Amino acid sequence: MEDAVVESGGKHRTVEAGRGTAWWTQSWALFVKNPGMWLVFGVIFFVGFAVLGFIPVIGGLVAAVLSQVILGGWMLAARKLDTGGTLEVGDLFSGFKEKLNPLLTLGAVAVGASIVTFLVMAVMGGGAVMGMMLGGASRSAGGLMASAALGMIAMLVGLALAFVFAMAFWFAPALVVFRDTPAIDALKASWSATLANFVPFLVYSVIWLVAAIVASIPFALGWLVLTPLTVLGIYCAYKDIFEGMVSLETPGLSE
Question: How far apart are CA 93 and CA 90, in angstroms?
Fold first, then answer.
């Protein structure tokens, strides 16, 4: 049964668990429409962000901000191909031409979210290290176990925060470029929609984890395919949940 919810980001619906598998099928169908260009997108993405990675501190911050702009561009590219258009290299950067300001706002929030996650983990992890150094954990099995437990909690808290932020950002770029939703409202709508569809997203995520392991084996070259597939999966899930996509049994993508 599917329920529709209306909020600041527009109407979204709750879908069945099987949709998590369908998003993979549909994203692959969209990928093979022009695999060469999607691979080019992947190469440009990795090379560009690798270059930024060589710039201490600033490079990482710039990458976090620009990632939301790039994702917005990829959403527009996916829509273009889905509706019968032909992809061009410039489509990767279409986020810089449309809705740039709200996408940059999303990027700034992403930086803040990353900093919060890092600080929480650093404080809790630092407490574990200090406990080992000052509490004599090296001479006490109980102290060592307590410090290790605190370190594990820090990691789990960090993962939990990252998961929460991922839910908020999952649909946000698509909502900005397709519905002209303000950045903060897009984050709220994305969080609400992913929470309402937690089970299909869990199914999708389990498959993604397996795919990520496989993609990492041959010198991580598989990520050149998995990255565009992931972005296309976001597009397909967005279309399904926010636009009422075609039925699960239908292999096509266009409405």
Answer: 6
Mean per-residue pLDDT pooled into runs of 10, the chain (255 residues): 52 91 96 94 89 86 90 95 93 90 94 85 63 52 62 77 89 95 95 94 94 88 92 96 60 42
13, two tokens: 């619906």
Residue 21: alpha-carbon gap to chain centroid? 17
- Backbone phi and psi for residue 130, each to the nearest 5 degrees, phi listed first: -65, -35
The two three-digit tokens of residue 129, written as one number: 């290290």
What span, in angstroms and rounded, lies between the C-alpha atoms of 182 and 144? 48
| Cβ atoms within 10 Å, residue 31 | 20
> 255: burial class by Cβ within 10 Å (0-12, 13-18, 19+)?
exposed
Q: What are phi and psi for residue 12, nearest 5 degrees?
A: -130, 160
Q: Is 93 exposed, middle or buried (0-12, 13-18, 19+ CB in 10 A)?
A: middle
pTM: predicted TM-score of the whole model, two decimal places: 0.82
- C-alpha separations of 89 from 37, 45, 84, 221, 238 in Å: 7, 11, 16, 20, 23
Place of tokens 């709220």: 188
Pull the structure tokens for residue 109. Answer: 């929030």
Instruction: Tally Cβ neighbours within 10 Å of residue 139.
Output: 8
